[in-house]
Amino acid sequence: MDRDLYLHETFGCDDPVLTRILERMKERDMPPISVLPSLGRLLTLLVKTAGAERVLEIGALGGYSGVCLARGLGKDGTLTSLELSPTFAEFARSNLAEAGFAEQVRYRVGPAISSLASLVLEGARFDFVFIDADKPNYANYLEYALQMALPGTLICADNVLLGDRILDSANQDASVVGMRTFVQRLTSNHRLESVGLPIGDGFAIARVAR
After folding, report:
1. Domain of 63?
2. pLDDT tens per residue, range 85-120
3. Per-residue burial over 61-88, b = 16 or more CB atoms within 10 Å of its CB, e = otherwise
4. How confident is residue 13, by pLDDT bands cut at 50, 70 and 90?
5. Distance CA 93, CA 110 (A)
6. What are the angstrom distances between the C-alpha of 183 and each of 15, 123, 150, 174?
7. Which one has a higher pLDDT value, 124 or 5?
8. Is residue 83 within a helix (H) or strand (E), and if so which, with residue range?
9. CATH number of residue 194's parent domain
10. What are phi and psi of 134, to 5 degrees?
11. Could you give the 3-state DSSP secondary structure of residue 20?
């Protein structure tokens, strides 16, 4: 048995609800880029541990990570999820409803930058932010997240290694450059305590100072 299989079986990552979401995504030929099961469980634990009640998700896709985030909320907690595609947003909404979170999730459809700008103008505040959307804009998403963060807010991001492409200094692809900028800003901002973890495609966690 290899290490990954051992951890998967020992920590019980099999989940009928999440497995069904993946199956439905495959039936619709949606990109297979949801978070790993272990990362989904980590998101749930982080939301619970932080006691977060207002969660922002940038990038809904099929609702897999949305379910994981919502599972960490208390009964009065809310999830605001941003998604570019109306089709994906509606599909994610149906999956969250099926998982029992219809009353706790709100979707905003369109470019995330526009949705974030609107949230800032509305005075929205969040105590947990998960970034998993288009990579060239990660640094911009971070800036908006900081504008809406509370003391102690956790800001998490997936895919920070980009299949290890970020390690190649000669690679100037827009996604790679965008991710390098994001990581630099995340690690140099005096308001943030941050850590990078070698989970999946790289996972970053930062906490806004109190």
Report:
1. 3-208
2. 999 999 999 999 999 999 999 999 999 999 999 999
3. bbbbbbbbbbbbbeeebbbbbbbbeeeb
4. low
5. 15
6. 32, 26, 21, 14
7. 124
8. strand 78-83
9. 3.40.50.150
10. -65, 130
11. helix
Token match 């807010």: residue?
153
Q: Which helix (H) or strand (E) element contains residue 99?
A: none
Res. 77: pLDDT tops 90:
yes
d(CA 193, CA 170): 28
Amino acid residing at 58: I
Token pair listed for 60: 């809904």
Give 47: exposed, middle or buried? Use CB within 10 Å, 0-12, 13-18, 19+: buried
Return left, alpha or beta for 123; rule: phi > 0 is left, psi -120 to 50 is alpha, else beta: left
Site of tokens 């109190």: 210
Q: Is the pTM of this model over 0.70?
A: yes
* Rounded distance between C-alpha atoms, residue 57 and residue 64, angstroms: 11
Q: Please state, in angstroms and rounded to a whole number, the distance separating the CA atoms of residues 100 and 113.
A: 29
**How many CA atoms, within 13 angstroms, populate the side-chain half-sphere of residue 141?**
25
Q: Classify 120 as helix, strand or coil.
A: helix
Task: Name residues whose C-beta falls within 8 Å of residue 47's C-beta, 6 or more positions apart in sequence.
Answer: 55, 69, 71, 72, 73, 128
Q: What is the number of structural domains in the chain?
A: 1
Count of C-beta atoms within a 10 Å radius of residue 177:
15
> Contact at 8 Å (CB) between 152 and 91?
no
